[in-house]
Design a protein that fits this description.
With 131 residues, this protein is mainly beta. The chain has helices spanning 33-37, 92-96, and strands spanning 2-11, 14-25, 28-30, 42-58, 63-68, 71-79, 103-113, 116-128. Strands 4-5-6-8-7 form a five-stranded mixed barrel. The longest helix has 5 residues, at 33-37.
Length: 131
């Protein structure tokens, strides 16, 4: 995950950033659900996790369950991009046609709620339709 700072520009009417300067880099570790479940809660350590959607608890915010093999984890929010806030966090699943049975890859820190592990405030990376 990188953050750049620059001026908004365009080339052939396509938006771009001109004179960009690298501001920060946040590393992302590829991990299975089983591996993430062994990690401590840490809001600054990001994991790329892939699993099959077994159920959707809240379609607006992308709250869902991902399963890989025998391991399952709750995803508390699947947003369209890193840093999305407010209403910009809503609607990703509908916009991308994501549903139960699809294979979804997200990037998120590991957290927990009432002692139950979760991927907190994840953002979308990719998906493959289950059909």
């Amino acid at each position: 995950i990188i953050t750049i700072v620059g001026k908004r520009a365009a080339y052939n009417n396509d938006p771009q950033v001109s004179g960009a300067v690298l501001e920060s880099v946040i590393p992302v570790t590829v991990a299975t659900i089983a591996e993430v479940l062994t990690k401590p809660d840490n809001t600054t350590a990001y994991y790329m996790v892939t699993g099959t959607i077994t159920s959707i608890a809240n379609a607006d915010y992308g709250n869902l369950y991902l399963k890989d093999g025998d391991s399952e984890i709750y995803v508390y929010g699947c947003y369209p991009g890193y840093g999305a806030t407010g209403n910009d966090r809503k609607g990703l699943l509908a916009a991308k046609g994501i549903k139960v049975g699809d294979k979804l890859t997200v990037i998120a820190p590991k957290g927990s709620f009432n002692g139950v592990p979760q991927l907190a405030n994840s953002f979308y990376f990719s998906h493959v339709s289950g059909q």
